[in-house]
Write a structure and sequence with these properties.
Shape: globular
Structural class: mainly alpha
Oligomer: single chain
Distance between the termini: 38 Å
Helix content: 55-70%
């Protein structure tokens, strides 16, 4: 699935587990959301691969390590530990970050096939084992189920942003988040505002 979908689903996990609005809980929600996006950091190898593709010794960091380095149990533990070290509530944040991380892996397992039919195996036990998991029913990255999941996550995020007064946009800018929530509430007033 695409990063937008991973981000929205991770935010929804964090949002579902909290109903507080103070900054400590906000920081925890941000850490959980970032943990759900973190597996795709292994995709940054594409920059080195593209930059060296015509050289004598091209770096195949994306071809060889995407869905490997960041999509495994060891990475899940490291990312979840970092998320809980950065946030306020240690155990709760670890569990939710670990869940968001694994939701990312499951989503990639079910819906990340390339248009050429290539499936990225998930090497969950890497670096301790090389065997990869592939689901034979995996749909293409741009298939309708991914679009439906993205739209459903977007709608849920909008409903929660309107209701609770915060959205994932706050990770980037609290001010922009406030503008978005105000616009949503103006367009779709809360029942108490009518």
């Amino acid at each position: 699935m695409n990063p937008v979908t991973h981000g929205l689903l991770s935010w929804l996990i964090a949002e579902a587990a909290s109903n507080d609005s103070d900054l400590l809980f906000y920081r925890e929600r941000a850490a959980i959301t970032v943990a759900g996006l973190a597996p795709d950091l292994d995709g940054l190898g594409i920059v080195a691969e593209l930059a060296t593709r015509h050289s004598e010794h091209p770096l195949l960091w994306w071809s060889q390590y995407h869905h490997v380095v960041g999509h495994n149990l060891l990475a899940a533990v490291v990312v979840s530990a970092a998320a809980c070290a950065w946030s306020g509530r240690r155990l709760r944040c670890f569990v939710l970050a670990f869940t968001a991380f694994h939701l990312h892996i499951v989503c990639d397992l079910i819906g990340a096939r390339g248009p050429d039919g290539h499936q990225w195996p998930i090497r969950y036990w890497w670096p301790f084992g090389q065997r990869g998991a592939i689901w034979s029913g995996q749909w293409e990255l741009n298939a309708w189920p991914n679009v439906v999941i993205t739209l459903a996550a977007l709608m849920a995020t909008i409903v929660l942003a309107r209701r609770r007064g915060r959205s994932p946009l706050g990770i980037v800018s609290m001010r922009a988040d406030g503008v978005l929530v105000t616009a949503l509430r103006k367009r779709f007033p809360l029942r108490s505002d009518q």
